[in-house]
TrEMBL record:
Spans traversing the lipid bilayer: 37-57, 64-86, 114-137, 178-201, 221-243
Name by which UniProt lists this protein: Aliphatic sulfonates transport permease protein ssuC
Record lineage: Bacteria, Pseudomonadati, Pseudomonadota, Betaproteobacteria, Burkholderiales
The species this protein was found in: Comamonas testosteroni
Subcellular location: Cell membrane
GO cellular component: plasma membrane
Length: 262
């Protein structure tokens, strides 16, 4: 298994090197203007220069801060809302249409309104990010909690377990894979939401760097900011995978221990 993973990593690295090499050769061979498509070497130079001078660090921190706050708020509210809707069909029938409507409205249309209502700064970015993260957690939690085996649910009822005990000891552990899958989706969407919100009126953040670079017609700086955004998203997604493996392994271990004791 480990050898297979190492081969996969090598193949991914070779693919990246091949793409960058072709890109570099094409930029040099055809004399492409840096305004249209800068060479990877020029992007790497701009990236290293910006990191060494400290230009990117405040923007990185601003985006990461807004992303994590929005992800935390949106995921927590989505998880609680999914649990509430899963426990009450009446609540689901009443509130689900409004939840769907809140998601189909384009977030780009809401961003200027949030800036108007809450002013410039981090708060509109956090709210847009939270709104984007909310739905995947809510929908996956609702789906996961509804996938409980009917026989196990009946067994809990026969043993006299309360609704809260059934939720915490049966439904949540059973729905954990679906909930964590929703978290993975939310992590990716959180970065998209944070950057898009920064396009609209943030003075700091990688999205603001992209807009500033566009205004200065500095395509190389724009690509350097996009590289940082991609790297941040990849690292957060990998961290989410590590957390998922840890939680699922812990759940499997505790389930095995309970089975052995039984």
């Amino acid at each position: 298994m480990s050898s297979l993973l190492s081969k996969t990593h090598w193949l991914s690295a070779l693919l990246l090197i091949a793409v960058l090499s072709i890109w570099e050769l094409a930029a040099r061979q055809f004399g492409l203007s840096a305004l249209v498509l800068p060479a990877p070497s020029a992007v790497a130079l701009s990236l290293c220069s910006g990191l060494a001078s400290g230009y990117f660090w405040p923007h990185l921190w601003a985006t990461l801060q807004a992303l994590l706050l929005g992800l935390l708020i949106g995921s927590a509210v989505g998880l609680l809302a999914g649990m509430a809707l899963a426990e009450s069909e009446l609540l689901e029938r009443v509130l689900k249409p409004y939840v769907v409507v809140s998601q189909v409205v384009p977030k780009l249309a809401l961003a200027p309104l949030f800036v108007l209502w809450f002013g410039f700064g981090m708060l509109p970015t956090v709210l847009i990010t939270a709104l984007i993260c909310f739905f995947p957690l809510m929908e996956n939690t609702l789906t996961g909690l509804r996938q409980v085996d009917a026989q196990r649910l009946q067994l809990f009822r026969m043993l006299g377990a309360t609704r809260l005990q059934t939720l915490l000891r049966l439904k949540l552990p059973t729905g954990l894979p679906a909930i964590l899958a929703g978290l993975r989706v939310a992590v990716v969407l959180a970065l998209v939401g944070a950057v898009v919100a920064e396009f609209m009126g943030a003075s700091q953040g990688l999205g603001a760097v992209v807009i500033a670079a566009q205004g200065m017609m500095d395509t190389t700086l724009m690509f350097a900011a996009l590289v940082l955004i991609a790297a941040m998203g990849l690292l957060l997604y990998q961290a989410c995978l590590v957390l998922e493996r840890y939680l699922l392994r812990s759940h499997h271990f505790s389930t095995s221990q309970s089975g052995n004791r039984a």
